[in-house]
Specification:
This protein has 13 helices and no strands. By secondary structure, it is mainly α. Helix 1 packs across helix 2, helix 3 runs antiparallel to helix 6 and helix 11 packs antiparallel against helix 13. The termini are far apart.
Length: about 230
């Protein structure tokens, strides 16, 4: 069964119940590290973040396509998942809880999902307060560390006043070797091979580029303290 066949099968299951109920079932069945599970969770959460007007517009699909390069022939499947999510009475928080359960044993995957949601939020070039509030909710629901969330904010909104030590998840004053160890560990975690092993679809592997840029920037800034 191909990736898109699994998406189609999931849509058929969702039509029998709701997309939210299907996510709940995926969590119960421990369907982790699976491209289809990751993609469905991402599309569903993206739909919940989209304008809640009950209509899926071509602009919303186009914004999603800018970073999730699905074939034109499969656009109807993506649109259907969007529609099923928007028709479901369950809210964004409930979807977050269900997605968190699917990947509860793999926090890096939840960081990947939130990274993609940042792409959705800033697709129009502006981070709106309401969207940032939803991202805060997602970070809390996913149980992400402060370091992980700051890495994502730095990647999408710029370093700003973010503490570079916080981005690397270390305390100021640690040894230079500890700084290098933290940097190497983060570099491994955000390597394309690591993302693929976690079930991130190949077309979304590039989401780690922004995170690595933030990590590299923080690392270089910290090194100046030791020069």
């Amino acid at each position: 069964m191909t990736f898109w066949d699994r998406i189609e099968a999931a849509i058929a299951d969702a039509r029998k119940l709701t997309l939210g109920a299907m996510l709940e079932a995926m969590a119960a069945q421990k369907q982790r590290r699976n491209e289809a599970a990751f993609s469905i969770a991402l599309i569903a959460l993206s739909a919940k973040m989209a304008r809640a007007d009950g209509v899926v517009t071509d602009d919303e699909i186009d914004a999603f396509r800018r970073y999730f390069h699905f074939p034109a022939a499969e656009a109807d499947k993506v649109r259907m998942v969007y529609q099923l999510a928007q028709q479901d009475v369950a809210g964004f928080r409930e979807y977050l809880t269900r997605v968190a359960k699917i990947f509860e044993d793999s926090p890096p995957v939840l960081e990947d999902v939130l990274d993609c949601l940042f792409h959705v939020a800033v697709a129009d070039g502006v981070a709106h307060p309401r969207e940032l509030e939803l991202l805060d909710q997602a970070a809390a629901a996913f149980g992400l560390s402060k370091a992980a969330y700051h890495r994502l904010k730095a990647a999408h909104l710029g370093l700003g006043e973010d503490d570079p030590y916080l981005i690397l998840g270390i305390e100021p004053g640690v040894s230079l070797e500890a700084v290098k160890t933290a940097y190497r560990a983060l570099s491994r975690d955000h390597h394309p091979d690591a993302l693929m092993a976690r079930g991130v679809p190949v077309d979304l592997i590039r989401i780690a580029e922004g995170r690595m840029a933030a990590i590299n920037g923080a690392y270089e800034q910290i090194l100046t303290d030791y020069s």
